[in-house]
Amino acid sequence: MLDLGLDKMALIGAVALIVIGPERLPRVARTVGTLLGKAQRYVADVKAEVNRSIELEELNKMKTTMETAARDMTSSVQQEIHSASQAFEQTWADATDGMNGSENDHASAWAPSYKHPKKNWRLKRGATPQWYKQHNGVRRNVQSGAARVARFRPPGQRA
């Protein structure tokens, strides 16, 4: 830029004192100072705006790379799922070929060979430990309504 040393600044000040005069020199110097301050703030704002735009461009580039990576990942996962489902369908078709091959009875080929185990829920409830039932307030001994009334009847009225 400009190479303004102390001697050049003194020369400019002396010329300004002669040309402008000592009465108006302080006001002109103040105006020049405010204009220089405004110019410096404007330059700083422009620099900050340029830096923000550069950072925004970098973020947009990063966003596009992340989006492409996500799209690539999604497509690869979908391809893997598709290949796995094709392999499963092929295996299922191979496994069910023997069932469809019996020509004497098509209904038996589609009939399920699975039979429900018919679990006894009373056995399952009986497997619960007694301390757990007592802790959670589960009734362990079932009484009829009449037996409950007789149990909680006052002592003088028992029949």
TrEMBL record:
<dbReference type="InterPro" id="IPR003369">
    <property type="entry name" value="TatA/B/E"/>
</dbReference>
<keyword id="KW-0997">Cell inner membrane</keyword>
<keyword id="KW-1133">Transmembrane helix</keyword>
<keyword id="KW-0653">Protein transport</keyword>
<keyword id="KW-0813">Transport</keyword>
<comment type="subunit">
    <text>The Tat system comprises two distinct complexes: a TatABC complex, containing multiple copies of TatA, TatB and TatC subunits, and a separate TatA complex, containing only TatA subunits. Substrates initially bind to the TatABC complex, which probably triggers association of the separate TatA complex to form the active translocon.</text>
</comment>
<keyword id="KW-0811">Translocation</keyword>
<comment type="function">
    <text>Part of the twin-arginine translocation (Tat) system that transports large folded proteins containing a characteristic twin-arginine motif in their signal peptide across membranes. Together with TatC, TatB is part of a receptor directly interacting with Tat signal peptides. TatB may form an oligomeric binding site that transiently accommodates folded Tat precursor proteins before their translocation.</text>
</comment>
<protein>
    <recommendedName>
        <fullName>Sec-independent protein translocase protein TatB</fullName>
    </recommendedName>
</protein>
<comment type="similarity">
    <text>Belongs to the TatB family.</text>
</comment>
<dbReference type="InterPro" id="IPR018448">
    <property type="entry name" value="TatB"/>
</dbReference>
<keyword id="KW-0472">Membrane</keyword>
<dbReference type="Pfam" id="PF02416">
    <property type="entry name" value="TatA_B_E"/>
</dbReference>
<keyword id="KW-0812">Transmembrane</keyword>
<keyword id="KW-1003">Cell membrane</keyword>
